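Researcher: Structure prediction, please.
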Amino acid sequence: MRIMGLVLASLAGLWFIGAPLAGPVRAADSSTPTAGAASSAEALGEFGDWQAKTVSQQGVTLCYVSSAPSDESPAFSGRNTTGLMVTHAKNGVARDQVSVALGFVPRKGTGVSLKIGKRRFTLQKIQGERAWSSSDAQDRQIVAAMKKADTLTLRATAATGRTGEERYSLSGFVAAYEKIAAACGL
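Model: Predicted structure follows.
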């Protein structure tokens, strides 16, 4: 089931080792939790360039992996913190939800392009500085491609018109993903 808009926590101050702690996830209906709720995050481990964690927000257990870009674009200098996430909610309420914190507001009317191996995807859902896919089917395709590739290249255009690319290493992604799948009972 896809329900838009659950914001787990404010991005301000809720980042660990350059990767997002929480962000917009399509899980269960809920209001925005307080930033203090993020302190209940439990580390499941670090796997290559990926971290696996769980957090309980208003009775919903979320399991997620996150990573920071390994090669940041100079076109995006001076931006806020950035990172890529894949999130599950306990017992299959949500699964394989892909989102990215860009650290800047993208240019209106543009999407965020992901290149994974030979596959290309566009994240069209934009809310502030975050982007995510528009369907569960696309989420599953992105995750399947991430499991098979070594890197993911993100391309976006900032509101200022500057376009840039950055790369995310997928080293450790599969192990981290398996850890959160087990933690969320999937």
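Model: The chain is about 15% helix and 40% strand.
Researcher: Thanks, that helps.
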